[in-house]
Amino acid sequence: TQLLEQSPQFLSIQEGENLTVYCNSSSVFSSLQWYRQEPGEGPVLLVTVVTGGEVKKLKRLTFQFGDARKDSSLHITAAQPGDTGLYLCAGPPGGGSEKLVFGKGTKLTVNP
Amino acid sequence: GAVVSQHPSWVICKSGTSVKIECRSLDFQATTMFWYRQFPKQSLMLMATSNEGSKATYEQGVEKDKFLINHASLTLSTLTVTSAHPEDSSFYICSARVQGPGTQYFGPGTRLTVL
What we know:
Strand content of chain A: over 45%
Structural class of chain B: mainly beta
Number of strands of chain B: 11
Helix content of chain A: under 10%
Strand content of chain B: over 45%
Order of helices and strands of chain A: EEEEEEEEEEE
Largest interface: A-B, 24 and 25 residues
Number of helices of chain B: 0
Largest sheet of chain B: 7 strands, mixed
Helix content of chain B: under 10%
Largest sheet of chain A: 6 strands, mixed
Oligomer: heterodimer
Radius of gyration of chain B: 13 Å
Number of strands of chain A: 11
Number of helices of chain A: 0
């Protein structure tokens, strides 16, 4: 079973600080997705990365897919309270499966 | 973007009753939908894969007779929790897969509380 390990599990920072969340696996993924989920709501897709070494930017968020497609990172610059939420990485386990395997998530709290 | 809706957003029921949750893809057709369960402060746990026009595929440990899934059209999948008990109380989320590299779009979730 392909697993996705996310770190850190919890992160509490002050507004304006930078942070990086990691998503690692020992297996190769054809793609990885990052979602943000707020309490009582469904996950919202932030980005899908497909190509090894790919970097995508979404305003203050920068996503990177590892060259070997085994890991990904999410970097947030100048975090704001509105960035607070549960960040989840997910990817298809391969073998033609349409399912997604999820990391356990990173609970980010940005304090004003 | 792809929009997925769920109904109801929350439901409270008595132990022993059945509850149906609907998942709809609003602006696209979804041959495959997924049902997840999420406990407080935990990640999503896949329950089953719902395929239009065929039987759902359940994950190991998920009782198919308890969690009935019907995917009768390309835009609607339903999850029925039969004979619900308090331990079935949870946040149930559906998603729909669109064409592309495995991208799924999620509904807003349904909070089920069984008394």
